[in-house]
Amino acid sequence: MCNNRNNRNKELWIQFKAGNDNAFAELYKLNVDDMLDYGLHFTPLRDQVKDAIQDVFVNLYNKRDNLNVVENVRVYLLVSLKNTIYSFFKKDIQHYQIDTIEPVFTLESSVEELYIGDEQENEQERHIKQMLNLLSPREREAMYYRYTEGLGVEEICVLMKLNNQSVRNLLYRSIAKIREVYKDYNKIGNKGFL
To answer: Are 134 and 74 found together in one domain?
Structure first.
């Protein structure tokens, strides 16, 4: 299904570049929900994320004649959104990591949405949050792209503006930290992490 979506995005992109406004509208509809979810990982300010999405699509429309064909339209849109959010909040330091001055990537909303329901799932949610909170924002971001979004290392490189080895190191360190916590979690009978 993901491959079909990528192909559809690419078809719509080509049609949009050729002047088809209906293709532009469909491209928007196909991607807007994912972009909103993605943007909310950087800031809880839903209206600002919606504004950033609108800016991305307005800029695309205005620059359609100068756009290249891209292999992965979804990644292109997510990078554009991340850059737009960055520019929106450039002056508000509370939204940034001190070491990189980039938007802080969080998993709060998506983890909460994933585990609604019975008590066992709520307990799992708490354990997962605690494990993920041990990771730096960049490590959480890389893990999200790889294991939630299913992106490849090269796509993560584009989104995070890192080289291949840096992304691989982030993923390796993240998994190592989670394994260490999980090992300790099992030793104490699931009680010390609540």
So the answer is: no
Same domain, 76 and 110: no
For 46-101, write each residue's pLDDT tens digit: 898 999 999 999 999 999 989 888 889 999 999 999 989 888 777 555 554 434 44
36-75 burial, b for 16+ CB within 10 Å, e for fewer? eebbbbbbebeebbeebbebbbeebeeeeeeeeeeebbbb
Q: What is the pTM for the complete model shown?
A: 0.66
Structural domains of the chain, count: 2
Instruction: Look up the CATH number of the domain holding residue 157.
Output: 1.10.10.10
The angle, 0 to 180 degrees and rounded to 10, between the axes of the packed helices 164-187 and 119-133 is 130
